[in-house]
Amino acid sequence: MNYKMKKIHNFSAGPAILPKIAIENSIKALKDFYGTGLSLIEVSHRGKEFVEVMDEARKLPLEILGLNNDYETLFLQGGASLQFCMVPYNFLNQKAAYIKTGVWAGNATKEAKLFGEVEVLASSEDKNYSYIPKDYKISADADYFHCTSNNTIYGTQMHSFPDCEIPMFCDMSSDIFSRKIDASKFDLIYAGAQKNMGPAGTTLVIIKKSLLEKITRKIPSMLDYRTHLNKDSMYNTPSVFAVYCSLQVLKWIKEKGIEKIEADNRIKQQTLYNEIDNNEFFYGTAAKDDRSWMNVTFLMKDDKHNEKFLEMCKEAKIIGIKGHRSAGGFRASLYNALELDSVEALVDVMKNFKP
Ligand SMILES: *Cc1c(COP(=O)(O)O)cnc(C)c1O
Q: How confident is the model over 230-273, as pLDDT tens digits?
């Protein structure tokens, strides 16, 4: 086969692979936005065309997650990292409860401490974040409980969520729209687009409207959820390209259906973990019950072979599988847009590995 013709298998953790159709539609809009003869990125965000884009982009997440109009959607900037600060700024009045399941959860905790008391109910730091703690009790007197559904760096995922009497908030940056969940358990969900929903530059926030009554602090306008909600997510100029491209991904998700997406994701992760468990050279790092379907982390039993394995991957046009600098080894991200044949290509290299 012509080397150049071979498909590139993109296992990057984020920014990450997107559905081809979303990229193609975005290219079209960059050239000619809905027949205006102008580019998406050179027309007013207040024009009728973009207002329609924003409206639809705000509706689809609720539709896909089966949420009613008790909820609202925003597309903000500043990444998921800004939500680490906005969430407590708006809602931590006295005390909040967090679980620390990885680097991102840790960053969320750190920011929250700037606004009040933070109770870390549980942490898996003792075992390098290789599992999801389950033995904790959520304090009834906390303002909210915050969790991270998928730990992108360490490859662990919450496969169930606790019953929670107080408002439950979740950072779903790396597994949103990857499986069917009961989203109505949550009062606030946020996700940086660049893992599983779109390009970098926008962050999806889904918020239960009744929460807003709980805001007591004076908050700078840009960091106050009410500012953005009152202006239909257009208080200031939104990231027009990131929102447009995210909308194309959301349409693809809706058309494919979350059940089918989940079924495909199930097979992809089974295929890869099965190889990891049966291959004499590799082992998985996450506790089996808590393994992520999105970010598969694994090591070589003898790490002096790491370079050789990466070299073989490169040869097979597999990219983005080097582990995060704080976890080491390898990480294969199996986001929604990654197809099974890419997982099979990686498994093939693993099967053929010889030191
Ligand atoms: C990548 C990531 C973040 C940080 O996202 P930014 O948009 O870069 O701020 C936060 N949480 C999780 C779970 C992530 O995977």
A: 999 999 999 999 999 999 999 999 999 999 999 999 999 999 99
Determine which residue's CA is closest to atom 3 belonging to ligand 1: 80
157 within some domain: yes
The active-site residue out of 100, 143, 187, 195 is 195
Q: Of 109, 162, 107, 111, which Cα lies nearest the Cα of 133?
A: 162
Q: What is the CATH number of the domain that holds 297?
A: 3.90.1150.10
Beta-strand pair 282-284/295-300: antiparallel
Question: Residue 192 Cα, ligand 1 centroid: separation in angstroms?
Answer: 6
Q: How confident is the model at residue 148 (pLDDT cuts 50, 70, 90)?
A: very high
Q: Ligand 1 pocket: which of 75, 152, 190 to mutate (most atoms <8 Å of CB)?
A: 152
Condensed to tens digits (0 to 9), the pLDDT of residues 318-331 reads: 999 998 888 889 99
126 close to 80: Cβ distance less than 8 angstroms: no
Active-site residue identified among 100, 143, 171, 268: 171
Residues spanned by the domain of 320: 257-352
